[in-house]
Amino acid sequence: MRKSIVMFGLVPLLAACAVGPDYKRPPLPASAGYGGEAVSPPGGAGTELMSGADIPAQWWEVFHSAALDDLVAQALKNNPTIDAADAALRAAREEVRAEQGAFYPSLTGSIQPSRVKNAETLASPTLSGEQLYNLTTTTLSISYTPDLFGGTRRTVESLVAQEDQQQFTLEAARLTLASNVVLAAIQDALLREQIEQTHAIIRDQQQTYATFEQQAKLGQTSQVDLAAQAALLAQSEATLPVLEKQFRINRDLLTALIGRTPAEPVTVQFDFQSLSLPTQLPLSLPAQLVEHRPDVRIAEEQLHSASAQIGIAVAARLPNIDIGITGGSAALGLVPAFDSTNEFWSLAATLTQPIFNGNTLLHRQRAAEALYDQAAAQYRLTLVGAFQNTADTLHAIWTDGDELVAMEKSETAARTSLDIANRQLNLGDVSRLVVLTAEETEAQARLALIQARANRYSDAVALFQALGGGWWNRETHVAADAEGARQ
User: Fold this and answer.
1) Is residue 345 within a helix (H) or strand (E), and if so which, with residue range?
2) Which of 134, 166, 176, 342 fits a disulfide with 89 by CB distance 3.0 to 4.6 angstroms?
3) Which strand ranges, in their side-by-side order, compose the sheet holding 106-117?
4) Domains observed in the chain
5) pLDDT of residue 42
6) pTM
7) Maximum Cα–Cα distance for the chain, whole Å?
């Protein structure tokens, strides 16, 4: 018995190889990059890129708004999307641990007390010849399947890759949620200012219309000028309900992002005076982008899992050994008895080899290889999309920066033009229609300037999102990695 157990313990040493390809991260294409004009465009204004600079975990703090920081923290704590992604990660982690149990022998114990009555026509199995007796059978069974060709190891490898995929899915959810909160806060500031400016424009136009109406009664202005002013006022008033609708919907979005219903609305308010626009932004190197973007890492782990699936399919076509040891005792009576006269044991090994199954296993291997090719293509597609997305964001930073400068000049010019038109009107050099045109131009320039400022803030958010969001610098993530390494 002891020799059998020793031999049984040495069997795992036979499992020394794992069939199938050993996964290697695909190399970064030599042409991977953002393009020269995206990184350093001619005439780019307003922003400095810090190549290779690291990204803080709480990247939204670059806007220097305590209210925004608190709102993002509430969202990350209370939004059900994060809870769902975290639960999926925990489930994937437990699947890995469950499959790792296949590396160890399985031990099963049982006890079976019974009352037995044999037929009188049959001989009693007992030495005493009794036909009615009590029998208690106690059994301990050990079974083990050596991982001869690494099928189990490849299965664990695939599940670990799926666990990592869920980890990056969680990081992607956190990044998307934080970005959406910051963008909604920027939209809140934008709509507030647009509504405020529209109210101011309407008040100015109402005063102008009242003046025109009085002058029309005195015959000092034409009905054409009065109608033109009325049309301009109506046009401005028509834009206000649209802005207020967008504002309320955006407030509902902010409430939902932090895990509340509209019955518990968000009370915090944002404006551009309370938000700082960073003048320096990080720019990850191409290798860092591949390492840090959650969508790229998800695609890579899918590729890793597909690679391991090939090994699983190959191992299924090779021989397999099942080893089992069973020992116990069978004693008359209802109380187990352990002595040499009652004990029994057996040691058995079964070697199985698939011989013919209609090429099912062969085609499953080929299917696994095809799925690997599919995952590799999807990885390349994700990689190209990541660089495109980052380059697009850089282009937006530069062009929106130039647009902001142009809008500031346009607003200054429109305001100056309106001042001149009003002075000329007082001197009688121009008609009321000239002033109306100048007013409309100045109002549109103000609103365009507000939108251009909001675009600059949104571009900064888009860049942090494109570069991965700094999850690797979060303390909880580092602690989780350390715990995983210990296990």
Assistant:
1) strand 343-352
2) 166
3) 106-117, 132-144, 320-332, 343-352
4) 2-22+49-116+133-486 (1.20.1600.10)
5) 62
6) 0.86
7) 135
